[in-house]
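User: I'm preparing a small set of examples for a lab meeting where we compare how different chains pack in three dimensions. I only have the primary sequence for this one, and I'd like the structure in token form so I can line it up with the others. Please keep the answer compact; I'll paste it straight into my notes.
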Amino acid sequence: MVTKVSQRKIPLFLQSLLLIILITKSITVEELPELFYFYLGSIISSLLALLLAFFHKKASLHMLGISSLTIFCIFCSIRFQYKPVMLISVLLLLNGLVASSRLYMKAHTPKELLLGYTIGILPQLFLTIFWL
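Assistant: Understood. Below is the structure token output for the 132-residue chain.
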């Protein structure tokens, strides 16, 4: 837990940079389009969180990550005609547990949780039109 929003800038920049290297050198859109667009959505989410940090706004990165993964798994199940009810149920439960724990620890406000949730979901939703 960092105390200042400005302390998030370097880790978010490094995360974005490493994800960019990953999809340019390892995971290509031709070989694994689903995974490529998942990581591309992660890059967009990280850059949005970084942009918010420059405006002294804090978004929950935990919520960003779990919501992004949940949406990705839901759309993978649609794409591959697979019904992982238990997996999606557990992920939705984890969304609630992560949010509750962040509130309980007083690490975030509800607004910051909602902001992280939104930043995690929107890029994934938008990018699914390219691979679904």
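A couple of notes for your slides: The two ends are 36 Å apart (CA to CA). The mean pLDDT is 95.

User: Perfect, thanks.
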